[in-house]
Amino acid sequence: MNYVVESYENYKEEDRLTTNKSRQVEFITTVRAFNEVFPASGKLLDCGAGTGIYSFYYGDMGYEVTALDITPRHINIINQELKNKGYHMDALVNDATDLSLFDDETFDVVLCMGPLYHLTDRVLREKCLAECIRVLKKGGLLAVSYISRFYMFPHIASSDKKYLNMSFGKKLIDTGVINHEDPDCFWTDSYYYSPDEIENDFNKFNIKIVDHLAADGISPLLRDKVNSMNDEEYKIWCDYHYAVCREKSILGASNHGLIIGRK
Length: 263
Ligand SMILES: C[S@@+](CC[C@H](N)C(=O)[O-])C[C@H]1O[C@@H](n2cnc3c(N)ncnc32)[C@H](O)[C@@H]1O
Known about the structure:
The chain is an alpha/beta fold. Helix content is 41%, strand content 19%.
């Protein structure tokens, strides 16, 4: 049984980035950073597309998008939504560690925003990155999201004291791995990167880093306060976050990190 797929089949991913202000910081920051460097159009592969929040954003802009995800429910939702769109998008169930469906150097942009959250095995993380890079055109952009290793303990342990134990904290610090059978598993099989580790991976694959930022900072931790902001206050909050999101200290403490590189 794939515990990652099982977990997402029983979760409403479609609500994750949209239903309140603290969650929307991640999407607002991400597209703001993307739009600084992405081409005006082109072929985009969204690996781990979820229910298509970025696929549809770029599809609506005129990109030729291919969305893939390992969770069948998510691809079904994308295909339903596509019926309301006046354009074509390929949406398929596929594992991001094997992109053999696609030829080398097919895409102008590859997004990998989700698969690395769940690849607990280093060999598979490298396979996923290698596949994303293989299908990317020379000069194309790779955008990778990760969950920060040093954010998770404060978030989980402050929400539920049963996780406030040093063996859980130490496991995160030392390995970044949580397996579904761990007594402290609060989610599913998952992997937590440090900013340095993902930069080392980009360097190892000769991908030139063009941006590296905190996608949401500590907004999810401060969700009650962020959600109570009016629109004017929220705009200031998002603008402030965007102004500091490339600070190393903010990046390491952020829930999600986002790194963009050129092949
Ligand atoms: C938290 S969601 C992120 C969705 C979207 N990319 C975003 O940033 O909002 C993570 C997604 O990655 C997918 N995923 C996890 N492992 C994967 C894999 N090995 N191959 C493809 N998709 C995977 C999950 O099914 C889920 O839809």
